[in-house]
Amino acid sequence: MSGLLLGLLVLGTVRAQEVACTAPASTLELVQAAARAEEAYRALLAGEDEEGAWRALHGEVQGLRRALPCAGVALTPALAARVHLALGLEAFAAARPEEAELAFAASRRAAGTADLPSWLAPTDPEARAFAALPLELGWEVEVAAPRRGRLLWDGVPGLHRPGPWPVVVQLEHEGVRFTRLVAAADPLPVYPRRAPRAAWALVGGGAALVALGVGLGAAGGAEFAAACASQPGQACVDHGSRTGDEVAASVEALVDAGLLAAAAGVAVAVGGGVWLAVGARPTAAAVGVGSRF
């Protein structure tokens, strides 16, 4: 290849800058962008006007990167597979083999097949790169559930982020709230999270402890009323087989236990409330362009 083309390949390593979305991108726009990227790669394979073919491929993929965050609808797994394929082809042509392998693996995973695209010959180097990374090496990480709506991973709903390959993640709630292409090392976009169930359990448990404390205090008071004279200045009298001192000690133990249970209940309930407040906050990641809540 010429020196100019090699220079362009180096420029291909620079990712497109995110821009504000002026209008939502339709499924048709994304499909057409991916198709044009594939066509440009075919032209590059043919060896005719390599510089022009590379410019077209690079330009289409950069345009796809810019349009993807503006997607106005949920992607299908098939469309997500084509997006990953286009990105992988551009990375492969730009001599970024590791990035290409990850993108190709993401494409195969989203498509649910290990088959090559029909127009890639099995003997071509890019075809070998397409199948180089076994999907069995993948893993999943559970993420927090959104407060409203659902998360989509390459068009599939769930709470498990796949890796180590990139994935298109979307939050869908009364429309698509955000669409992002994230690599394994990238943070997820910010989204309000559903409060953990354990936090609600703490609040409930704290309330139960407070109720227990009140009950113990009331039991102590009832025992005191039953065992002690009500006239002013008269000390506790013997109650059954117990002396007045024993009754007083029992009442004091009940009241102390009640106070301890109530204090513990307040502490647990406050801890659960703080967890609810913190757990419902957006995740600690940078807000992506076009996110809306």
General description of the model:
The chain folds into two domains: about 5-180, no CATH class; about 195-280, no CATH class. A four-stranded antiparallel sheet has the order 3-2-5-6, covered by helices on one side. Strands 1-4 form a two-stranded antiparallel sheet. Residues about 1-20, about 230-235 and about 280-293 have low confidence and may be disordered. It has about 290 residues and is of the alpha+beta class. Helix 2 (about 25-45) packs antiparallel against helix 3 (about 50-65) and helix 3 crosses helix 4 (about 75-95). Strand 2 and strand 3 (about 155) form a beta hairpin. It has helices spanning about 5-10, 25-45, 50-65, 75-95, 95-110, 125-130, 195-225, 245-280, and strands at about 140, 150-155, 155, 160-165, 165-170, 175-180.
- The helix content is 40-55%
Shape: elongated
Helix and strand succession? HHHHHHEEEEEEHH
Q: Overall mean pLDDT score?
A: 73
What's the main sheet like?
4 strands, antiparallel
- Tell how many strands the DSSP assignment holds: 6
Class from helix and strand fractions = alpha+beta
* Strand composition percent: 5-15%
Spatial arrangement of strands, main beta sheet: 3-2-5-6
Number of helices in the DSSP assignment = 8
Radius of gyration: 32 Å
Compute the number of structural domains: 2
Low-confidence stretches: 1-18, 229-235, 280-293
Task: Give the CA-CA distance, first to last residue.
Answer: 48 Å
Attribute tags:
four-stranded antiparallel β-sheet, 52% helix, 6 strands, 2 domains, two-stranded antiparallel ribbon, 293 residues, single chain, alpha+beta
